[in-house]
Amino acid sequence: MQDYHKLEVWKKASDLVDQVFPATQNFPPHGWDGNLAVQLRRSAVSVVLNIVEGCGRRGGPDFLKFLQSSMGSATEVEGAVELSRNRGYLDADESAQLLSRVTEVKRMLTGLMKSLGGGWGPTEN
Description:
de novo design (two linked rop proteins), 0% strand, elongated
């Protein structure tokens, strides 16, 4: 078991959540667009919680599995940010800040997975 508080990627992912929640405050509350705000928030929280759950496992392959799930959620955040920008709910600056933050988290997740022998990389399957 590992203390997730010591992981810089956990801190950065938590910062992403802190940035996503206020960014989605003015999304429409109902319908498809309201669901987009909820999904963006859930995806950001999932990045953090998968790191936490992985740290609570035995380590090795179990931890790697949850980091991979965290990466998937981070990619979902990217897509939701882009949809939100395209629909006019996030301005260019706000979406760029969110995308920059999620890119940083994904880079850190990639490094951590590689260090665990996960062989994770943009050109690998």
